[in-house]
Design a protein that fits this description.
Layout (H helix, E strand, L loop, with lengths): L1 E5 L5 H12 L5 E7 L5 H8 L4 E3 L8 H14 L4 E4 L8 H6 L4 E5 L14 H9 L4 E8 L9 E8 L6 H24 L16
Parallel strand pairs: 1-2, 1-4, 2-3, 4-5
Antiparallel strand pairs: 5-6, 6-7
Bound molecules: 5-O-phosphono-beta-D-ribofuranosylamine (GRF).
The site of 5-O-phosphono-beta-D-ribofuranosylamine (GRF) has 13 residues, from helix 1, strand 5 and helix 6.
């Protein structure tokens, strides 16, 4: 499994997946990292890990179509077969979505379909969970489509909301769960335990 990452900010989920690849907990290879943010933690991490990395954005490519093509070209050039959105704050273009249909995963820090969609990112998600008085929240990994947070759900893990939680403490607890959960889901896809339409495993689920 060759992993291509798109990430806009810190890249801690990406790092957790890279670590799992290093220990062998996840039998996969990170092959490319793309960010729309030239000064993202994700690109810095990729540099430290000697993974090919690119800043691709409307600053480097003047139109959405050219940017879409550049992202697609980078993924293909590095022979990616699974695309990971790890805190990527932009929408993918139609060419990339079509070529990797069924093989693009996103992680969301709540139990979708609740607390998803436009504006539901970062600390806003956890603020909304607390404001709604939820007793539990969690992590969702889902396939990526043209709409935010709306593709088929591949896996969810619950996280308790504690009485004295602030948005920040809740975010920390959820993020910890994300770091453990994403590599596990990827390995279950790799070994064929979870089937997704765009990834051909060596051990198909019958
Ligand atoms: C995570 O909370 C993830 O669920 C969301 O964006 C955040 C990215 O964090 N999509 P990081 O960049 O992986 O640290």
């Amino acid at each position: 499994m060759k992993l291509g990452f798109l990430a806009s900010h810190n890249g801690s989920n990406m790092q957790a997946i890279i670590e799992a690849c290093k220990t062998g907990a996840l039998q996969a290879t990170p092959v490319v990292v793309i960010s729309n943010n030239a000064v993202s933690g994700a690109l810095a991490r990729a540099g430290r890990e000697s993974i090919p990395h690119y800043h691709l954005s409307l600053k480097t490519h003047p139109t959405p179509e050219l940017l879409d093509q550049a992202i697609l070209d980078a993924l293909i050039a590095h022979r990616v077969d699974m695309v990971i959105l790890a805190g990527y704050m932009k929408k993918l273009g139609v060419k990339t979505l079509t070529r990797f249909d069924g093989a693009i995963l996103n992680i969301h820090p709540a139990l979708l379909p609740k607390f998803g969609g436009q504006g539901m990112y970062g600390i806003h998600v956890h603020e909304a969970v607390l404001a709604a008085g939820e007793k539990e929240t969690g992590v969702t990994i889902h396939l990526v489509t043209e709409e935010y947070d709306s593709g088929a759900i591949i896996g969810q893990e619950k996280v308790p909301v504690l009485p004295d939680d602030t948005p920040q403490t809740l975010q920390e607890r959820v993020l910890k769960t994300e770091h453990a959960f994403f590599p596990r889901i990827l390995d279950r896809i790799r070994c064929g335990e979870i089937a997704i339409p765009g990834y051909r495993t060596m051990n198909p689920v019958t």
